């Protein structure tokens, strides 16, 4: 089985697999190698990754980003307080002193810990890997900053557990960079080490490490970091900071963590329930789209492929039926269940095919006779 690695950043995430003697950064559903680290809670389902980023502008208070800045940190942390001033979504202090992110989801106010949100993000990345490998993914390696505390590292492991993953190793991001640089080098010295500096400037932090290379060897000599200096700070020099009005939303549901095993199990169950809800909504959307596609396809065929074989009266009846279904889709049928859309499609097919069946049989008969004659 291929080894899967997850690199989650403040703004984007990357999934990579080791196969065919190389490291392959896999594509997501949008054929991109980077997936936005965004979770947007809609009225009926979650939108994660690219879909979440696309919903940010229309639903900013329920679009959660920069989870990396929240994970494993106390609400009173001065650096976190500085970050919160720029977040459009609601963050409040939980009873354990850690942040809770409050959103509107499924018609109610719900609160999530950063660990739960990261678990949702890992679940999405896991799905990308499984779709690419066409196999289940459990074991993985996750990149983390060198400055992460023990509590933050444990939060990463808990988040992976929520997503159904088993992290074999947490590797420093700078160490991973050094490995990527040296793994294919064939002309490394055998005696005196070659020292190389790696500078990683992310969205909100900066890391530097010095690595020593010998043939077949890698040693990290030192590393340094600044948790609060990143690309965003350079952007703020060029443009005035935009202030976003924030509203405190009362906390209804508190699921917080360290995370005890009982709470972790509850988080796993909640993630499963929300993933199931997402799947139901996607399947319902697919069935609705199938009805709409059938209406358009049949209408086009009546004006094109079937035109010379259908009388005007027959065509008018079928067009009227198709129009009725289309009107229903955008009015009473705008928000129906999956079973209703399935039944509507079957009803439409039955009505259409019953009128076209005899016509097609006659047409096929004459075509076969013509072929025999020729």
From TrEMBL:
Looking up InterPro entries in the UniProt record yields: ATPase_NBD (IPR043129), HSP70_C_sf (IPR029048), Hsp_70_fam (IPR013126)
Keyword ATP-binding set for record: yes
Alphabetically sorted, this entry's keywords are:
ATP-binding, Nucleotide-binding
Q: Which GO terms describe its cellular component?
A: cytosol; nucleus
Q: Which GO terms describe its molecular function?
A: ATP binding; ATP-dependent protein folding chaperone
Its recorded name reads: Uncharacterized protein
Organism of derivation: Kalanchoe fedtschenkoi (Lavender scallops)
């Amino acid at each position: 089985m291929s080894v899967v690695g997850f690199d989650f950043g403040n703004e984007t995430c990357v999934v990579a697999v080791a196969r065919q003697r190389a490291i392959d950064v896999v594509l997501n559903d949008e054929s991109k190698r980077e997936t936005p680290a965004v979770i947007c809670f809609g009225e009926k389902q979650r939108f994660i990754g690219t879909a979440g980023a696309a919903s940010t502008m229309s639903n900013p208070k329920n679009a959660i980003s920069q989870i990396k800045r929240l994970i494993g940190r106390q609400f009173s942390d001065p650096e976190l307080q500085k970050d919160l001033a720029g977040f459009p979504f609601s963050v409040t202090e939980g009873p354990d002193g850690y942040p809770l992110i409050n959103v509107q989801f499924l018609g109610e106010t719900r609160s999530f810990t950063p660990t739960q949100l990261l678990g949702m993000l890992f679940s999405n990345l896991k799905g990308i890997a499984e779709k690419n490998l066409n196999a289940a993914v459990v074991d993985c390696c996750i990149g983390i900053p060198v400055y992460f505390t023990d509590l933050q590292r444990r939060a990463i492991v808990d988040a992976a557990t929520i997503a159904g993953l088993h992290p074999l190793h947490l590797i420093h991001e700078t160490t991973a960079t050094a490995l990527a640089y040296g793994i294919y080098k064939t002309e490394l010295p055998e005696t005196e080490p070659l020292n190389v500096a790696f500078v990683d400037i992310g969205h909100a932090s900066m890391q530097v490490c010095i690595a020593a290379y010998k043939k077949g060897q890698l040693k990290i000599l030192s590393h340094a970091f600044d948790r609060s200096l990143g690309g965003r700070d350079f952007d703020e020099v060029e443009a005035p900071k935009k202030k976003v009005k924030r509203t405190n939303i009362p906390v209804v549901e508190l699921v917080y963590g360290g995370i005890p095993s009982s709470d972790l199990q509850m988080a796993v169950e909640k993630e499963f329930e929300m993933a199931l809800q997402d799947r139901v909504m996607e399947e319902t959307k697919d069935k609705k789209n199938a009805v709409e596609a059938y209406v358009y396809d049949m209408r086009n065929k009546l004006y094109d492929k079937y035109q010379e074989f259908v009388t005007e009266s027959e065509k008018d009846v079928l067009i009227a039926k198709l129009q009725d279904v289309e009107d229903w889709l955008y009015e009473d049928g705008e928000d129906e269940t999956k079973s209703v859309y399935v039944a509507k499609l079957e009803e439409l097919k039955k009505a259409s095919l019953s009128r076209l069946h005899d016509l097609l049989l006659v047409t096929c008969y004459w075509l076969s006779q013509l072929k025999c004659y020729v």
